[in-house]
Amino acid sequence: MLKSSKSLKILSLAALVMIVSLVGVTGTVLAQGAGPSFQVVDWSTNPGTLQRGSQFDITITIENVGSEDAEDVSISIGTGNNFVGISPSGIINEIDEGDDGTFTLRGAVVSTITSGYYSIPITVDFVSDKDGSADTDTLTIGVYVQGSTAGDEGVASFTVTDWSANPENLYRGLEFDLTFNLTNVGTWDAEDIVVEVGTSSSFIGRSVSPMIERLQIGQSVVVTVKAGVASEITTGFMDLPLDISFNHPGSTGPQAMTETKNVGLYAVGKAPSLGTITGRPQIVIEDSTITTGAGDLLLTLTLRNTGDLPAKDVIVNLESSDYFSPTDGSSAVAVDAAIGIGESATVAIPLTIISSIEQRVTQEFTIDFGDYAGSYYNDTQRILLSVGDAAIDIPHLLISTFSTVPAPLTPGLTYQLDLQLQNVGDGPARDIFVRLGEDASSLSPLGMVNGTNVQYLSQIEGGATLPVSFTMAVDGGADPGLVTIDVALEYDDVYGVAQEESQALSLQVVDAPYFDIQFYEDLPEKIVVGDQITLPIEVINIGETEINVSTMEVTSNYFAISGGSTYIGSLDGGTSGSESFEAQAAQIGTATVTVTVNYLDDFQRSQQVIKTFSIEIEGEEVISGGESGGQSGTPGGFAGTSTMTFAQRLLNGLLGFFGIGTQSPGGMGGGGGAMPGGAAPADMGQGAAQ
Q: 470 φ, ψ to 5°?
């Protein structure tokens, strides 16, 4: 790299003579007359050794050696045969007499030169501070270029110059055309050339250029590509990359090659101080018209963008309807082009009438659209449609509801799938076949039990509903998740015309929790009203998979529980969580202790497993002589005695007859296994509470 004339001291005298003969001096020093005047005092290139056909950055320091100050100073690579300017420097507002300024340019070396020393012409544009007149100085800089050698086949290389945008003023979210000159500055022709916008956070490619069949060495062509400005930008200059793909028709045959060039563009966005950009497109349905026919109609919607960014990839979709069905099998219709700010576009949706309509009905539509920043939006709009008196007696079958018994589905479970077929048309549907999936493999991990995947119904009248049931099973090795079943409905109308509908059902398969809930220590053999005891409860995951348990809660009708809830946490298979709860016997009788284990299933929904225990609470015996050894065992103050009078025995017998007397001593009893909703023992495998 050559830095200044000082660096020439290390060269041989012959080399020095050659360099001086090429460039004269380091920078052309203009006569120090009236007005500003400049000379180069330092420069450097990156990379240090320039290569033919390659781009480079050059940093130049110039000094004002004139007799006046200069304003609005900028530099650029001047006109020449060996170097091409790609981007100009910035502007320095003022360089006073005797001061200097530093600039950075980007340029490219043509690919047609051979190795050697060359001069880069530098143009300095400025305005005199004294009289405001504009002027230009031309300087030169000497550099060494690694060029072609004898026998070098060469390759095509490109520069992009004289680019412009239409519209000229770019702002976030705008779509525009970029036009530029593409020049082959390489040492070989290029064929099948295509230019497109490359990957960028500031710009989005909207189209590629037409293919250019051939571009010879030194030949130029005008190219136009369509691009969009991203909406998430701030105001300023930014690079738009252009990816150039071409074939190199070398002596060994065609070879695909690529090259990327950048052009600088200025676009208006939000100021950085304003923070996150909140603008977006907004599509609304502003008008609708209907043309009716024999059972069919054409719905035309007018869409308007009322937002502050253009909308692209606009799709309108008919939501579920009691009156219409898409004629072409899909209710989604795309808008051909982007909709600019304040602009409108129309879409036409062919529909079939599936039930009688009179005058006006309301209908929902979903509208999906995006912007040039890559964000996508979804809106639902309900509009009033005026359809007149069009009607036709045709059947139309839908699956209105479906359910499984039992639910939810767990691996290894046999269940019944119940479908409700509804004829939402006015005419009857005949010879109906209901088919689950294409074949057995398409239903996996579900399978048929004691039947086939096809059922037949003779007829469903217009507006009627009929049930259809299939007995199925879940594979024991099924993973938890959603299972989709395709259901085909094939039937004839009153004219014998075949109709077919297809719907998809999604069923949830969840792992069943396998819990064993028990007392891990024995309770006292006898519990009397007023006793303070400990309920030592343990929850054991006896299954193979981890279960995310949150809390265990203990409640009772006859015990006062202290701190009746505790956190357990996730339990791996074969592990347990336990806690002791303080309880005070409050009433005579068979107490119910309910243990509720709260956990999350495979779909992160809160579920419960419940188990109940029965514990006998007795009244406290009274010591002979009528003195009580503790608190009274019954709400009325009566207590069991070892010696009772006739009246006392009679009263006790009456209380026992009505089920409110003292019960026989007893311990804990099972109130059923721990299952979601308390339906069955927890170790039997049923899961979520319904």
A: -130, 135
| Greatest mean pLDDT among 344-353, 477-486, 489-498 | 344-353
Nearest by Cα to 154 from 108, 188, 183, 185: 188
**Per-residue three-class SS string for 341-368:** CCCEEEEEEEEEECCCCCEEEEEEEEEE
Quote the Cα angle for 648-652-653, to 5°.
115
Strand ranges across the sheet with 565-571:
565-571, 547-556, 589-600, 606-617, 668-670
Q: Is the pLDDT of residue 664 over 60?
A: no
| Residues 52 and 105 sit within 8 Å (Cβ to Cβ) | no
Q: Which amino acid is at 493?
A: D
Q: What are the pLDDT digits (tens) for 512-537?
A: 777 889 998 889 989 999 999 999 99
Q: If you count DSSP H runs as helices and E runs as strands, how many of each does the chain have, helices first?
A: 2, 46
Q: How far is CA 17 from the centre of its chain?
A: 66
CA atoms of 194 and 221, how far apart (whole Å)? 12
Query: Is pLDDT of 680 > 50?
Result: no
User: Would you mind telling me the total number of residues written for the chain in this entry?
Assistant: 690
Q: Are the C-beta atoms of residues 208 and 194 closer than 8 Å to each other?
A: yes
In a 10 Å sphere around its CB, with 0-12 CB exposed, 13-18 middle and 19+ buried, how is residue 556 labelled? buried
**Rounded distance, CA 69 to CA 289, Å?**
71
Cα separation, 588 vs 586, whole angstroms: 7
The whole-number average pLDDT for the span 105-119 is 84
pTM summary value? 0.32
Asked if the model's pLDDT at residue 689 lies above 90, the reply is: no
Compute the distance between CA of residue 127 and CA of residue 70 in angstroms, rounded to an integer. Answer: 6
Closest CA to 535 of 476, 609, 614, 623: 614
Would you give the end-to-end CA distance of the chain in angstroms?
Answer: 79
* 201 phi and psi angles, rounded to 5 deg: -85, -10
Q: To the nearest whole number, what is the mean pLDDT of the chain?
A: 78
Q: Is 273 helix (H, G, I), strand (E, B) or coil?
A: helix
Which bin fits 660, alpha (ψ -120 to 50), beta or left (φ > 0)?
A: alpha
Nearest to 247 by CA among 233, 232, 257, 237: 257
